[in-house]
Amino acid sequence: MDTVGELLRRWRHRRRLSQLDLAIAADVSARHVSLVETGKSNPSAGMILRLADQLDVPLRERNRMLLAAGFAPRYAERPLDRDAMPAAWDAIARVLRAHEPYPALVMDRRWNIVMTNRAVDPFLAHAAPDLLRPPINMVRLGLDPRGLAPHIVNLAEVRSLLRTRIGRQLAVAPDAELTALYQDLLMPGSEDAGHPPESEVAIPMIFRFGGRELRLFSTTTTFGTPLDITLDEISVESYYPTDAETAAYFTEPRAHPARHFSLS
């Protein structure tokens, strides 16, 4: 088991900070940071969280640091439902409903779909049933030939964009399951040659359904100051039409059964 000093040093290296850089940011001495990292000083829970805050360590990993130092975890991890977190649930549900008639969904840190609005349903209708068994992974759903991949016109660009985003995510907070997903679906290949994303903001996802082309770009929203691991690790992905034809598609009358996908 890693010591708290080893974990702090690993996160400091990941953030490319020297001991002096971290000490200045946390308003402590560089010598104290060195003693903590080498195990010659036992930090308090408050000091661990102070250093972790300056290193922007995810809440899950802060709990791991506290446990390594012999302290109880500070942050809870509750399911995102009406019973466990009613205020958060209602806030997220309002955001999703307000974004209709355009698609929006909530994902966890491994890109599993937690919740969607009704505008996502037509896209899910094109996927194989086994891809829709929870937890539904958005990356696998999008890139699997039995999912949305055959309907994405600019698939190579989308794959390259996902590779960039998840690669950055793993650099910030490594995760074994997400790494496996990256290696399975996003490792560079010959099909990606000549298709680097020019801009994460400008590149749309282009779908073709029944002879109609839909062009969408997305924005990502996260909780600003979460104190719960679940909230710390989720994001809301909202999609917007880039042209009038796409906007018209989403305003056409159609029946959408309500959906909600759990993390389990």
Automatic annotation (TrEMBL):
Source species taxonomy: Bacteria, Bacillati, Actinomycetota, Actinomycetes, Streptosporangiales
Protein name (database record): Transcriptional regulator with XRE-family HTH domain
InterPro entries: Cro/C1-type_HTH, Lambda_DNA-bd_dom_sf, MLTR_LBD
Gene3D superfamilies in alphabetical order: 3.30.450.180, lambda repressor-like DNA-binding domains
Lineage top rank: taxon: Bacteria
SUPFAM superfamilies: lambda repressor-like DNA-binding domains
Positions of the HTH cro/C1-type domain: 8-62
PROSITE patterns: HTH_CROC1
CDD domains: HTH_XRE
Species for this entry: Thermocatellispora tengchongensis
Molecular functions (GO terms): DNA binding
